[in-house]
Specification:
The chain has about 700 residues and is of the alpha/beta class. The protein contains 17 helices and 30 strands. It has a 9-stranded parallel beta sheet. It has a 7-stranded mixed beta sheet with strand order 12-11-13-14-23-22-21, with helices on both faces. β22 and β23 form a beta hairpin. α5 runs parallel beside α8 and α6 packs across α8. The chain is globular, with a radius of gyration of 26 Å.
Length: about 700
């Protein structure tokens, strides 16, 4: 099982001049602020920034993320005077600081003196300076210089009264997760020695008898660089695991320095749980932090609200249900999508409060003041190019007032939902490797489809790591759980034997931890539990579909499902295509539990035709009135004494629904019903026994 997050929250300092109270003794607010980059602006702007931060209700800023070149102009020179001034300025205005270690991007003097720290791609091409994150995670030279900077930062600011937390690097792996350099090759071999112990064990795990790949020693192994054909799939999978671990090792190295010098200051780093960012297995990383932090940007995709909610929910799952820190999101447009649309101030509030609903106790943005130059000058900020006299800044101020009203929520944890959706980085990586039955499969999208369908049904679901405790969940959905080690299969069997209701999808249970196929028919490790057997996959061409007896339309994938247990029932059959008449969705009763199988991709609309039967069999009902199902998301946090119910309007239409409890955010009509304007959010406090 994954070790739990340590969870020491922000060390909130008292404002300068507060009388009597010991440091950190004041009631914690909702963290509200942004990355602040004063080095981009003349000194006379700084005082105006501090004044506007107070007006907006800012309580915390992140400093020094990309300041290495300014803090250390050359190998032997340090310049902390400007940062001293900004730290003091923040403290004087009652604003806490999440201080970055500033190691995210090496300065030009370092890459000039040591070009061997630059990463190399799979083609052997060097990635040169000029952007950011141009360093090898396994470079001993980079590590030496980075830790020297970390030590200098910790020694200088560890006792500063504004310091609330340390922020290690920034978005580790955003641009340099996969490095194929000689340093990476050496480190990869060491990682493999630790994992397999002997070359024979590696050969067995990787199946190197195929294509004459057998290794006589670890010294012969390389990263999966550009090859004449498909590189060995387990080599690719292990390199993904290694690359995530290499970045995690750097995180641990910086954290160790900080904890040695400033043991009372919590340590975090910003994850990127959003969209298709997949290179870092954050489930393991979380154990190295005092609290989890995440960056999320609204995706330009269909059902973008669902993606935002899913990502926030998964972040909560990674954090073990404990509160977490939203380190970055956008007040309006970003600069890096194909078309960068602005965000209304209503959506500004909606997005922020959806993250709070799923456990965020701090809501921060990139960045405070929109840059006037550089690659991100068209990325929105809390203060836009138009300045404080703008609708965007007025929306920022309104959000600050709203977050002040949510101070009672701080410290509360996720209230367990009736349904869990399993999320597994190994399965994400392995299911989308090359030379598979289809290249169109998208692991995260299948999980998101189920999440959205449950939202449409008005049913709360927790997105949790695959090794999470499943007790207490009435139903567990395992989308494309491709890699299933025996211990995972046993946990799922025990869950079902204990009365739980499992739902697995196509391409699940196929391979073990080394991506070796379970022989005897699919779905491999889950075959007996599900009571079905598949001899061969039947993926569909892009755009090709099949009809099901429920009225659903399947795409991407089909399977000729055979029932192997007389008790297994058919919930839906194929009506068209080569598999017409054969089972498409099945369920096998197991005592008071069950194990269901969905052999095609149904999408949100198709899942709506099979979910009612699956939910009813698990005894799961919506907590929302019928009039609000499909339009409102209900999320619950609890502190043991009270529960905080967030009602999020998922539509552009006004919604009115009955709701009890003390209204912290939102409005009621004359009849006492909660009124949600388009994309509006209401928050109620109720007794903990109410649910």
């Amino acid at each position: 099982m994954t070790p739990p997050v340590q969870h020491r929250w922000l060390r909130w300092p008292n404002p300068a001049g507060s009388d009597g109270a010991a440091s950190g003794s004041l009631a914690p607010p909702v963290g509200y602020g942004a990355d602040y980059n004063p080095e981009q602006w003349p000194r006379e702007v700084w005082a105006e920034d501090a004044r506007l931060m107070r007006e907006a209700g800012v309580t915390i800023v992140t400093l020094a993320v990309f300041s290495w070149a300014k803090l250390q102009p050359d190998a032997d020179t340090w310049d902390f005077a400007w940062l001293d001034e900004v730290m003091d300025l923040m403290h004087a205005h009652g604003i806490a600081v999440d201080l970055a270690t500033a190691t995210a991007s090496p300065p030009p003097w370092l890459t000039t003196a040591h070009p061997e720290i630059l990463p190399v791609n799979e083609r052997g091409e060097t990635l040169w300076p000029g952007a950011r994150q141009h360093w090898r995670p396994t470079s001993p030279v980079f590590r030496e210089h980075a830790l020297r900077l970390v030590e200098a930062m910790a020694e200088r600011y560890g006792d500063h009264p504004a310091l609330a937390a340390w922020h290690v690097s920034n978005e580790l792996g955003c641009h340099n997760v996969y490095d194929y350099s000689s340093d990476a090759a050496d480190a990869f071999r060491g990682w493999l020695r630790d994992r397999y112990k002997t070359a024979d064990a590696l050969n067995d795990a990787w199946g190197t008898s195929f294509w004459s790949q057998r290794y006589g020693s670890f010294d012969q192994v390389l990263p999966p660089r550009l090859a004449a054909s498909y590189p060995n799939p387990t080599q690719q999978l292990d390199f993904k695991r290694f690359s995530s671990d290499a970045l995690r090792d750097h995180l641990r190295a910086e954290a160790a320095v900080l904890r040695r010098l400033t043991p009372d200051v919590p340590v975090t780093t910003n994850f990127m749980v959003m969209g298709e960012t997949r290179g870092m297995d954050y489930v393991g990383w979380a154990a190295d932090l005092d609290f989890v932090s995440n960056d999320h940007y609204r995706q330009a995709v269909e059902r973008a609200d669902d993606e935002l909610s899913f990502s926030a929910n998964l972040t909560s799952g990674i954090a073990g249900g404990k509160p977490w820190y939203l380190m970055e999101h956008a007040t309006s447009a970003v600069n890096w999508q194909d078309v960068n649309l602005p965000k209304s101030t209503a959506m500004l509030l909606h997005d922020a409060l959806t993250h709070v609903a799923h456990g965020a106790d701090s809501v921060c943005f990139f960045q405070w003041r929109a840059s006037a130059s550089g690659a991100e000058k068209y990325h929105s900020g809390m203060v836009p190019h138009a300045g404080a006299d703008s609708e965007l800044f007025r929306g920022v101020v309104r959000l600050g007032r709203t977050l002040e009203a949510l101070a009672p929520v701080v410290g509360s944890e996720r209230a367990q939902a009736p349904v869990a959706i399993l999320f597994d980085w190994d399965s994400w990586w392995a299911s989308e490797l090359d030379s598979h039955p289809t290249s169109l499969l998208r692991y995260r999208q299948e999980a998101l489809d189920w999440y959205g369908a449950l939202l449409d049904a008005g049913v709360r679901a927790d997105v949790v790591p695959v090794d999470a405790d499943l007790s207490g969940y009435a139903m567990v959905v395992a989308p494309v759980l491709y890699l299933v080690p025996e211990e995972t299969a046993e946990r799922l069997r025990s869950y079902v034997d204990g009365g739980g209701h499992l739902v697995a999808t196509y391409f699940s249970g196929i391979a073990d931890a080394d991506d070796r196929i379970y022989l005897g028919g699919y779905p491999g490790a889950l075959r007996d539990l599900l009571g079905v057997r598949v001899e061969e996959f039947a993926p569909l061409l892009d755009g090709q579909t099949v009809r099901l007896s429920t009225g659903a339309v399947g795409s991407l994938w089909t399977e000729p499902v055979q029932l192997t247990d007389p008790a297994t029932e058919v919930l839906a059959s194929y009506l068209s295509g080569s598999l017409a008449g054969s089972p498409a969705v099945t369920r096998r009763p197991v005592g008071t539990g069950s194990a269901a199988y969905v052999s095609t991709r149904l999408g949100n609309e198709g899942l709506a035709t099979v979910l009612p039967q699956l939910l009813a069999g698990a005894g799961v009902v919506s907590e929302l009135p019928a009039s609000a199902r499909g339009t409102v998301e209900r999320v619950v946090r609890t502190d043991g004494d009270a529960q905080f119910v967030f009602l999020v309007n998922r539509t552009e239409h006004r919604v009115v629904l009955p709701a009890t409890g003390e209204l912290l955010v939102g409005e009621r009509d004359d009849d006492g019903a909660v009124v949600l304007d388009a994309h509006g959010v209401a928050v109620l406090r109720e007794p903990a026994t109410a649910s």
